[in-house]
Amino acid sequence: MTRRTQRITPVLAIAGVLGLAACGAATPYQPAVDGQGYAELQLEDDRFRVTFSGNRLTARETVENYLLYRAAEITVARGFDHFVVADWEIERSTTYFSTMIGVGGAFGFGRYDVFGDPYGAFGSATARPADRYTGYANIVLRRGAKPPGQPETYDARAVLRRLAPSISLPAA
What angle do CA 163, 165, 169 make, to 5 degrees? Predict the structure, then answer.
């Protein structure tokens, strides 16, 4: 092994470990990167569509909190005091990860019948579901005190204060 190879190999190993570590964490509160994170679209002067998409390790409650937090940030940044959630939706998409254990075929690999069983032998498969959540909210920004008795209305600064401790930012 050359000295150059000796120097590159540890770098590649560290990069691989960091890459695997990144796959093992919930989506942080961040602008959307590769479809994960928050985004918004201004529909009118005082209306926005806010979205937050998490990965398979991001809990539904986290997606809901991040969506509300982003709505509150937009409200305050635009000089408004509270926002009304005109409509709200959380979508769940499920992906199944499977593990196949079996012996069969000419060499025991890659030859399966239409039912997923290896030719001429036995096998078993285990499928694990992984849910991924995406939240959407259409919000209307308002000025002044939040009107009482309207559960779909949120005081933006109160939302920011209360949810701030649960917001997980990306690693620096």
Answer: 95
> Contact 77/141 with Cβ under 8 angstroms?
no
For residue 166, what is the DSSP state? Answer: G
What confidence tens digit (pLDDT) does each residue in 54-98 have? 999 999 999 999 999 999 999 999 999 999 999 999 999 988 877
Given a contact cutoff of 8 angstroms between Cβ atoms, the answer to whether 97 and 90 are in contact is no
The C-alpha angle with vertex 30 and arms to 25 and 91, in degrees rounded to 5, equals 75
Q: What is the pTM of this model?
A: 0.72
DSSP state of 143: -
What domains are defined for the chain? 29-103+132-172 (3.30.1360)
Distance CA 168, CA 59 (A): 13
